[in-house]
């Protein structure tokens, strides 16, 4: 057995001693309060994105709007799934997911822009996806190896946000 590993008796004793900390053990290597704060910011961003995509889905009009509107709806559903994953992780870490509408818009990295034309909707959603990509990349870099589970959740969401941005760029190029 390697010298750097904690012996099993010590592991068991610590687990019992700190039982109310749930999944957060002494091995947790990140600033827990800051992680929860960042996750609540990401949660707010996803909520705003869900609402913006949903509004754009219903407001999209015009000859070529149907496939774009359908994509907006799919993205809205996926953004809601991201919000749910973030809220679950916050709760798992012992925090409280903050979904208070009075605070969500001010905390979100992306903006809620109820665009009027299809091209503007696509552009606003592409901007928001780029903001999310930059934000998640920074969070992942900041976490490093301090919280591998949160890092994995953020990486999976980041991959979907990159796909969303690619979808919006494809629509934008076909509109132009």
From TrEMBL:
Protein name: Bacterioferritin
Top-rank taxon, per record: Bacteria
Keyword Iron recorded: yes
Entries under SUPFAM superfamilies matching the protein: Ferritin-like
Keyword Iron: yes
Annotated source species: Kitasatospora paranensis
InterPro entries: Dps-like, Ferritin-like, Ferritin-like_diiron, Ferritin-like_SF, Ferritin_DPS_dom
Listed PANTHER family: BACTERIOFERRITIN (PTHR30295), DNA PROTECTION DURING STARVATION PROTEIN (PTHR30295:SF1)
Cofactor(s) needed by this chain: heme b
Domain Ferritin-like diiron: 29-176
UniProtKB keywords: Iron, Iron storage
């Amino acid at each position: 057995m390697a010298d750097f590993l904690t012996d099993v008796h010590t592991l068991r004793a610590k687990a019992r001693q700190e039982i109310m900390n749930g999944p957060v053990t002494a091995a947790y290597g990140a600033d827990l309060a800051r992680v929860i704060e960042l996750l609540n910011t990401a949660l707010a961003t996803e909520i705003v994105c869900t609402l913006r995509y949903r509004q754009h889905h219903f407001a999209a009009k015009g000859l070529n709007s149907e496939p774009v509107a359908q994509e907006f709806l799919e993205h809205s559903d996926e953004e809601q799934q991201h919000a749910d994953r973030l809220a679950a992780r916050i709760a798992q870490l012992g925090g409280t997911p903050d979904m208070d509408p009075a605070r969500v818009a001010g905390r979100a990295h992306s903006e809620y822009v109820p665009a009027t034309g299809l091209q503007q909707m696509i552009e606003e959603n592409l901007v928001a996806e780029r903001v999310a990509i930059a934000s998640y990349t920074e969070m992942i870099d900041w976490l490093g190896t301090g919280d591998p589970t949160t890092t994995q959740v953020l990486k999976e969401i980041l991959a979907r946000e990159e796909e969303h941005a690619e979808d919006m760029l494809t629509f934008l190029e076909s509109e132009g």
